[in-house]
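The protein record quoted in full:
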Amino acid sequence: MASVMLRILLLLVTLPLSARAQTNGNLTLGSSLTADDRNSCWLSPSGEFAVGFRKMGQGAHLLAIWFEKIEEKTIVWSANGDNLAPEGSKIQLTADGRLVLADPIGRQLWSPRSIGTPVMYAAMLDMGNFVLVGQNYINLWETFSQPTDTMLPTQQLDQGTKVHARYSETNYSAGRFHFKLRNDGNLAFYATPNPWDASDAYWVSKTSGSGFRLIFNQSGQVYLTARNGTVLKLITSDTVLTSGFYQRAILEYDGVLRHYVHPKLANSSSGLAKGWSMVSSPVPPNICHSITQTVGSGACGFNSYCALGDDQRPRCHCPPGYTLLDSTNEMNGCRQDFVPQSCDGSRLETDQFALHEMLHTDWPMYDYERIAAQTEDSCRQGCLADCFCAVAFWGRSGTCWKKKIPLSNGRMDLTDVGKALIKVRINNSTSKSTGNGNKNSTLIIIGSVLLSSSVFVNLLLLLITYLIYRSFRSRDSKLSRPVQINQAIGMQTFTYQELQEATYQFKEELGRGAFGTVYKGVLRSEYINFVAVKLLATRTGESEKEFEREVIAIGQTNHKNLVQLLGYCNEGQHRLLVYELMSNGTLADFLFGASRPSWYRRIEIACDVARGLSYLHDDCTRHIIHCDIKPQNILLDGSLTSKISDFGLAKLLMANQTRTTTGVRGTIGYLAPEWFRNMPISSKIDVYSFGILLVELICCRKNYKPESEIEAQIVLVDWAYDCYHDGNILKLVESDDEASSDIKRVGRFVMTALWCIQEDPSLRPTTKKITQMLEGAVEVPVPPVSSSFISSV
């Protein structure tokens, strides 16, 4: 009897553990984990590694692998950093052998590439590798061959494999840094997601023609081998005794590869500090000096400079007169904090600017003019008189090097002999002062007046001073609540008065459209957060609760290619939305401006917009049809990442509050035919609009150009079809050397666009399929002849 009771007691004790994780053994078909507050996981046989869900914030979860037996629970691999899973999502090894991450209503968020061969079981191995195993115990898929930012001992990477740094310390979406073992045998590090040329690498192994495999061995060395196994180059040089340490090599978010070890036992006598310790020289040793390409933003983003800190890690700073674009991420670059010099010939404003000296600081490889045999004074005067000059560098054998905005590859290093002369406006009357300094100067002025006035006037001014002080205190208290930038934390509600004050009585207009007018605002917390406040044009037809429900649904979207809704105001007749401020404006301004964006940048924009639409249509909690995709509704952030704006707003407005009174929502030129044919409206209307936008991105011009001298080119999509039908796609980009040299991709993009603008909505691909077409993951079939093009054939 006692034995039976003991067995029951042991069973009860182990129930919570088995509910949380499978501690050993293979995972059979049908096994699953649910994303909840318990950080559910499957363990490796020794319990040293776990795979499962890690909570990233309220209601947001990351499917990941981590070190389970150390306090930090350091993540070494993740699946869905770009698309976090909501509460209640499930990872399951299905009955048919597929590993699928799906949200609570069954929509797929992530799955490994198609395997084709039946999977027998899955396993979390003690080396940190999660595998799907087929017949004869062959690994059909494994995380070791699909790394994110980390390598572990025994891991090997073959040619063509990429390792991506994450966006920031806490954001596991893909950042701009990566390294790749190229097919030419070189291991190369890049500072852009899709480098245009092999020469864009900021560190190369110089093993061309022989590099075959990158290996992290159990002795703690990362090295390149030839096809026959010969060691060609050591990437990390130190050998570490592995018995008492965990190890990892990680490409960190600052673009540097570092090798770390961690004692397995808390009381380890290794002499190393507790936690992770770096044990090998980083690669590259000084990234501030390594990035010297003539395009791109460098290590720290545009208009900033990089300097190694005391810990030999790169630190990003803004020069005088500049502030961070994003106060939460110093690597996103800086913006001018003053009105630039006018290029109006009638007013040079030379006396309105001064030059600030910065020793040992330079933005190399980014000069637009070099003048030899200069004195420092003539270099200064030349920059002050030149409205394009933002910085002059002087000191290299009497040469003056002029640089203009945006500044790139900035660095501060004692080996750079000379000085940078930063041009800054002396009295920037258009800048808005913030903080206590402004209050103090006001009180000083009032105090001096009090000392020289009559008693009556003194008393009156004292009362005014008190009221001003109360006004400042009231304003600060109302705007002191922190802005929740991360959607997972939740949106903020505002009063109408708060947003009036934040926008200085709706003073600075950023733009206007069908849904309302957008104003620039600033919300004060520990940092100054710039926002865009959209004042909806009219009262919506929804009740207050319905309005809030729809706004919250929009706010629950979470994708890097969507403009983030931070909060809203729903007060009486006032309906306002508060968004993150996109510092580089609209795609329309960027695409149709005086200078043509690079072909690479246009490729990135097209793919970004397709990914954002795919998320809206298929992956967010409530499917959203945008209804007005056009360049004016695509915004660019500080790093020129494109984000879709105004999504979901069509549902907030009644039909008679949109652009026409017929129920049509959108903009002429981008509207799908079904709007005018009494046909059902579906997500395919966005696909049609995207097709028009894609052709505009390819050709870098507006779809409708009535002033065109050639009649066939007035409507861009018609001309694009004519060029495609005639086999002369090159004609579309003949003045664009970059695009012309990438004509195969141009053809793929044109064919994708022609599929998107088919008159029959059923023929148009989904946005998920469009993304695959643009990325080259699937072949693009020959598009059919749409009836709208018959006349032009």
About this structure: Confidence is low (pLDDT under 50) at residues 1-23, 429-456, 472-489, 654-662. The chain is about 20% helix and 25% strand. Residues 290-425 form one domain. The CA atoms of residues 131 and 142 lie 4 Å apart.
